[in-house]
Amino acid sequence: QVQLVESGGGLVQPGGSLRLSCAASGFSFNSNWMYWVRQAPGKGLEWISIINPDGKTTYYPDSVKCRFTISRDNAKNTLYLQMNSLKSEDTAVYYCASNPLDNKYITFRYRGQGTQVTVSS
User: Fold this and answer.
1) Distances in whole angstroms, Cα of residue 56 to Cα of each of 51, 72, 109, 111
2) What percent of the chain has pLDDT over 70?
3) Which of 42, 35, 25, 22 lies closest to 115, judged by CA?
4) Neighbours of 45 (CB within 10 A)
5) In the chain, which ranges are E strands?
6) Would you state the pLDDT for residue 116?
7) By the 8 A CB rule, do 93 and 72 touch?
8) Which of 39, 59, 95, 113 has minimal CB crowding within 10 Å?
9) pLDDT grade for 86, boundaries at 50, 70 and 90
10) What whole-number distance in Å separates Cα of residue 93 and Cα of residue 74?
11) pLDDT in the model for residue 85
């Protein structure tokens, strides 16, 4: 059974940092592309980072580029998202995911339950 379990969310002030983790099990983590997506209140899912299986290739949308860093530890089957210079508009539920079912990275075969990130003073 595939499990993706996110952790590390919470309340942080604008300009602060958080590091999210995603523990993966039940599938070949080290041979799969991995994704972080988020859903802000009242909005749809938005992909915010992508990493290839060996961790050497990453992609980000302009909204988080230079502030967020995706990484992975294949030995630990764990995905990470380092978020710096957080803004109020980063408030969302953050999910890790794999095996996208569409080319806009909105639906996935595997997706975790999410962790809430709230950026507020």
Assistant:
1) 7, 10, 23, 22
2) 100
3) 22
4) 19
5) 3-7, 10-12, 18-25, 34-39, 45-51, 58-59, 68-73, 78-83, 92-100, 108-111, 115-119
6) 98
7) no
8) 113
9) very high
10) 24
11) 98
